[in-house]
Amino acid sequence: MASSFSRILSSRRNVGLLSLVGGSVAAGFLLRRERVTAGEPLRRRYPASADYPDLRKHNNCMASNLTPAIYAKLCDKTTPNGFTLDQAIQTGVDNPGHPFIKTVGMVAGDEESYEVFADLLDPVIKERHNGYDPRNMRHPTDLDASKIHSGVFDERYVLSSRVRTGRSIRGLSLPPACTRAERREVERVVVDALAGLKGDLAGRYYSLTQMTDKEQQQLIDDHFLFDKPVSPLLTCAGMARDWPDARGIWHNNEKTFLIWVNEEDHTRVISMEKGGNMKRVFERFCKGLKEVERLIQERGWEFMWNERLGYILTCPSNLGTGLRAGVHVKLPLLSKDPRFSKILDNLRLQKRGTGGVDTAAVGGVFDISNLDRLGQSEVQLVQTVVDGVNYLIECEKRLERGQDIKVPPPLKQFK
Amino acid sequence: MPFGNTHNKFKMNYSAEQEYPDLSQHNNHMAKVLTLELYSKLRDKETPSGFTLDDVIQTGVDNPGHPFIMTVGCVAGDEETYDVFKDLMDPVIEDRHGGYKPSDKHKTDLNAENLQGGDDLDPNYVLSSRVRTGRSIRGFCLPPHCSRGERRAIEQLSIEALDSLEGDLKGKYYALKNMTEEEQQQLIDDHFLFDKPVSPLLLASGMARDWPDARGIWHNDNKTFLVWVNEEDHLRVISMQKGGNMREVFTRFCTGLTKIEDLFKNRGHEFMWNEHLGYVLTCPSNLGTGLRAGVHVKLPNLSKHEKFGDILKRLRLQKRGTGGVDTAAVGGVFDISNADRLGFSEVELVQMVVDGVNLLVNMEKRLEGGEDIEDMMPEQK
């Protein structure tokens, strides 16, 4: 068991040391894939061809990239913890997808999944993240919130600001694969660390199994409480097993910093406030994340991270920064303009309804957030949202005055 | 395989206490029987196909149950599950099947001639009659655990066998994934089509994986004999018709089942069966006969009688709504069927239904006439 909990060479601390020592040679070394020993090969009763899934009606990234050859090569491999290809792709087999919305269709069961099943995950990542190639590109991490400029929005338009991401604890399996003991260990490690937060970050943990009715109602009223997943995309991946064991919510006393434990990822970290001060929201986000990281490191743990993929999370769509920075913003005129979608596209933004993903906008109020996750840093993505939302507000104001608006040129993707 | 870490050896790095599920809110047979000691004893075991204790109990951990309805809370992934995990399964079976002991023997009797009467349930009250059971093909894993290749092999074998049926059993197979819209609508109208399971009891055990791959429905041209392939069990076999001639329904049931079994045997396969558990199926509640013989019967007066529940209990019958398990009765019409599955033969169970329903209908007629039914109260069977 010790090997699972020990630091792996690709941790950031060691990256820093090696860069100092070896410059470009070290960088080259680190870009080469870590050599992960796979677990024992899986015994199969049937040949790969008999077990190959029927994906003819499917529209997801896994189905677009899986081939009988890749399946045959990977189907008897396991990660050191025993996670298999069939488990990784089950959600994509069970959920054919939608003609308009392309889901990812696979998950990781642990950090090593991204290595052992790289022949499938690399092309899936490349497709999902607009051409980011994990084999030869590096992901920048930057949590220095002081770099954000113009990050306070006009509050006549922006009702609330929010930044979220996820973090995984290195050495423990991810939600699709974790055992009950592992999941409880994640909870223990995280809750232990969070108890060390002070000042405006000091707060409290509410375990889902032990919550009182009153506490539950308060958390619902605060829009903090998460439910047992009902989406088949998640349940088919096995993330809801043993619910609600070892699940819970932590938040600070001011209700501006919130952590979900053992939902779709080990942790989901959320910073939010009413109003338009995105800069402050992001400052708290970065400060909180760094504090939590320091606290778990003191106890001998670290987050899953590497230079190829940034922060490692369950769903390949959340790799890199795992960051979604967004606002609820009133754009009643702009949203009716036929150029709205194109403007969002070029600004690398996406719109959602005010209930989150897959909901409708109410009263001209939209949830606007960054499209990208991987290949750009946190600072870059938040600045993109800041610049983009400022632009949208300008457009709305111009339309109010009867003036015309312009579609901005498309932003470059990987800077 | 259901989800989660089925690599059992890895879990051995944690202690039993660390892995033991929290069953404090639970009310199902598995949760009543499982203890930390039992968990410790069984957790390093696997069936030859790799099914583990956590695989067996996952559905019971994920579904705490209901204060009034006691679900089973565990499933088998293959035939050997009932042996490798007998220390858990035997007490669950005993509790679920009225005290059936590990040393008891189960009688199988599919000779419809042994049924007495049953051809004249009053059609003014009995709207339809139906008998169902399940069968598993020996040597293959069960729905919670089978791979896609295995499931497809089961489908293929079943199609070959069913295609050889003749006479009034001659019919056609409709694969779920190849069905046309028209065929689908017809099957819905006939009340034949089964849907992807939505019950969390089934989903949590992994039975719905890869839907609708290798699932389908076979029925005879007369629409009185129907087989579901790869839903909750390898095969579910159903005989049904309108009206009250349960005898005819049961006769066709027995003939069809016996023919299907012969066809499988000719191809070198047999059904999972043993002297102690009878026919082996995915859910322990369906062991033995796996048989549910039932009618849709109009009992608007009797169903409001205060002793209705008690009468059913004494007759060893259970009521459901007309949509099947967990549905409501509509217009005073109930689904009445045998409560038992194991420890009685098929003939005995159908006899209980026939005799019981006759009594219920007579009671209904009495109540219609404004008289009471005190002198008709049955003994506990």
TrEMBL record, chain A:
<comment type="similarity">
    <text>Belongs to the ATP:guanido phosphotransferase family.</text>
</comment>
<feature type="binding site">
    <location>
        <position position="223"/>
    </location>
    <ligand>
        <name>ATP</name>
    </ligand>
</feature>
<dbReference type="InterPro" id="IPR036802">
    <property type="entry name" value="ATP-guanido_PTrfase_N_sf"/>
</dbReference>
<keyword id="KW-0472">Membrane</keyword>
<feature type="binding site">
    <location>
        <begin position="352"/>
        <end position="357"/>
    </location>
    <ligand>
        <name>ATP</name>
    </ligand>
</feature>
<feature type="domain" description="Phosphagen kinase C-terminal">
    <location>
        <begin position="157"/>
        <end position="399"/>
    </location>
</feature>
<keyword id="KW-0067">ATP-binding</keyword>
<feature type="binding site">
    <location>
        <position position="268"/>
    </location>
    <ligand>
        <name>ATP</name>
    </ligand>
</feature>
<dbReference type="GO" id="GO:0005524">
    <property type="term" value="F:ATP binding"/>
</dbReference>
<dbReference type="GO" id="GO:0005743">
    <property type="term" value="C:mitochondrial inner membrane"/>
</dbReference>
<protein>
    <recommendedName>
        <fullName>Creatine kinase U-type, mitochondrial</fullName>
        <ecNumber>2.7.3.2</ecNumber>
    </recommendedName>
</protein>
<dbReference type="GO" id="GO:0004111">
    <property type="term" value="F:creatine kinase activity"/>
</dbReference>
<feature type="binding site">
    <location>
        <begin position="160"/>
        <end position="164"/>
    </location>
    <ligand>
        <name>ATP</name>
    </ligand>
</feature>
<dbReference type="Pfam" id="PF02807">
    <property type="entry name" value="ATP-gua_PtransN"/>
</dbReference>
<keyword id="KW-0809">Transit peptide</keyword>
<feature type="binding site">
    <location>
        <begin position="324"/>
        <end position="328"/>
    </location>
    <ligand>
        <name>ATP</name>
    </ligand>
</feature>
<dbReference type="InterPro" id="IPR022414">
    <property type="entry name" value="ATP-guanido_PTrfase_cat"/>
</dbReference>
<keyword id="KW-0496">Mitochondrion</keyword>
<keyword id="KW-0547">Nucleotide-binding</keyword>
<keyword id="KW-0418">Kinase</keyword>
<dbReference type="InterPro" id="IPR022415">
    <property type="entry name" value="ATP-guanido_PTrfase_AS"/>
</dbReference>
<keyword id="KW-0808">Transferase</keyword>
UniProtKB/TrEMBL annotation, chain B:
<feature type="region of interest" description="Disordered">
    <location>
        <begin position="96"/>
        <end position="117"/>
    </location>
</feature>
<keyword id="KW-0808">Transferase</keyword>
<keyword id="KW-0547">Nucleotide-binding</keyword>
<feature type="domain" description="Phosphagen kinase N-terminal">
    <location>
        <begin position="11"/>
        <end position="98"/>
    </location>
</feature>
<keyword id="KW-0067">ATP-binding</keyword>
<dbReference type="InterPro" id="IPR022414">
    <property type="entry name" value="ATP-guanido_PTrfase_cat"/>
</dbReference>
<dbReference type="InterPro" id="IPR036802">
    <property type="entry name" value="ATP-guanido_PTrfase_N_sf"/>
</dbReference>
<keyword id="KW-0418">Kinase</keyword>
<comment type="similarity">
    <text>Belongs to the ATP:guanido phosphotransferase family.</text>
</comment>
<dbReference type="GO" id="GO:0005615">
    <property type="term" value="C:extracellular space"/>
</dbReference>
<feature type="binding site">
    <location>
        <begin position="292"/>
        <end position="296"/>
    </location>
    <ligand>
        <name>ATP</name>
    </ligand>
</feature>
<dbReference type="GO" id="GO:0046314">
    <property type="term" value="P:phosphocreatine biosynthetic process"/>
</dbReference>
<feature type="binding site">
    <location>
        <position position="236"/>
    </location>
    <ligand>
        <name>ATP</name>
    </ligand>
</feature>
<feature type="binding site">
    <location>
        <begin position="320"/>
        <end position="325"/>
    </location>
    <ligand>
        <name>ATP</name>
    </ligand>
</feature>
<dbReference type="InterPro" id="IPR022413">
    <property type="entry name" value="ATP-guanido_PTrfase_N"/>
</dbReference>
<dbReference type="GO" id="GO:0004111">
    <property type="term" value="F:creatine kinase activity"/>
</dbReference>
<feature type="compositionally biased region" description="Basic and acidic residues">
    <location>
        <begin position="96"/>
        <end position="110"/>
    </location>
</feature>
<protein>
    <recommendedName>
        <fullName>creatine kinase</fullName>
        <ecNumber>2.7.3.2</ecNumber>
    </recommendedName>
</protein>
<dbReference type="Pfam" id="PF02807">
    <property type="entry name" value="ATP-gua_PtransN"/>
</dbReference>
<feature type="binding site">
    <location>
        <position position="191"/>
    </location>
    <ligand>
        <name>ATP</name>
    </ligand>
</feature>
<dbReference type="InterPro" id="IPR022415">
    <property type="entry name" value="ATP-guanido_PTrfase_AS"/>
</dbReference>
<dbReference type="InterPro" id="IPR014746">
    <property type="entry name" value="Gln_synth/guanido_kin_cat_dom"/>
</dbReference>
